[in-house]
Amino acid sequence: MRYFVWVSVFILSFSFTSFAQTLYWFTGAGIKKPAQVIAKAFNKTHKNKVVIIAGGSGQVLNQIIQSKRGDIYTLVDVDFLKKAQRFRAISGYKKILKLTPIFLLSKDGEKKIKSFYDLAKDDIRIAGGNPRAMCLGKTFKQIISKLPSKMASKIQKNIAVRCLNVFQIVGYVKEGVVDAGIVLDKALIKNTHLKYITIPQRYNVNRYGYVALVSYSKNKKAQEELYNFILKHLYVYKKFGFEVIK
Fold it and tell me: At 25, is the secondary structure helix, strand, or coil?
């Protein structure tokens, strides 16, 4: 009898755990922190568990496409959204955030740069983004394309490094390797204690954040559950300083 009870408990335990799924949430590095908070809340209240995989929006999209896996993809560039659609890597999405690019300044950069136009000075070093890996690369390129040709040429020459994600840019600025670095929104520098300059609206390019359903999901029901949970917890992004689109 004791043996029968033990076997029954084992079978029930195994049956319960076997239905638990691991959900993979791929996210752009710049919006990773709110994703981590939402994932933690989800993991506390659901049997399925979320794993966050972060990097440049383009980087993580390549991982999704190459590995043919994933459940949720949050990103901050419409070009990567279109690429995901071309590869049929996503089955649906919603626009959730509006982001306004700025330039973060290092301690030395504060002394040299008082306005956006100072980025064209001869002794300025700028951290940009790799257009293939992250949206900031494309954003910077679009901003430069709006500038007068002489100013655009000078700023292009001042780009000292092209990074793979926003954390690299912030790191280079913090360490003083560069004088300035482009970031997608002031919400991303909330706890850096570093100053920034704004970009004149006529030159700036607003970006938007999206949450998408990855078409390779192995459990559509669990995926939908997480997707809806994210949409109900968008206020978490707002707490981190992001502008949430209702």
Answer: strand
pTM of the shown model: 0.78
Q: What is the end-to-end Cα distance of the chain in Å, rounded?
A: 59
Q: Where in the chain is the domain with CATH 3.40.190.10?
A: 2-99+207-244, 102-198
Residues facing 210 on adjacent strands: 75, 95
> What value, to the nearest 5°, has the Cα angle with vertex 151 and ends 145 and 156?
65
Domain 2-99+207-244 class, CATH top level: alpha beta
Q: What is the pLDDT along the chain (246 residues), one digit of tens a residue?
A: 444 334 333 333 444 445 678 999 999 988 999 999 999 999 999 999 999 999 988 899 999 999 999 999 999 888 899 999 999 999 999 999 999 999 999 999 999 999 999 999 999 999 998 887 777 888 899 999 999 999 999 999 999 999 988 889 999 999 999 999 999 899 888 778 899 999 999 999 999 999 999 999 999 999 999 999 999 999 999 999 999 997
Instruction: Give the DSSP per-residue string, 165-207.
Output: SHHHHHHHHHHTSSSEEEES-GGGGTTT---EEE--TTT---E
Per CATH, which fold does 102-198 belong to? D-Maltodextrin-Binding Protein; domain 2 (3.40.190)
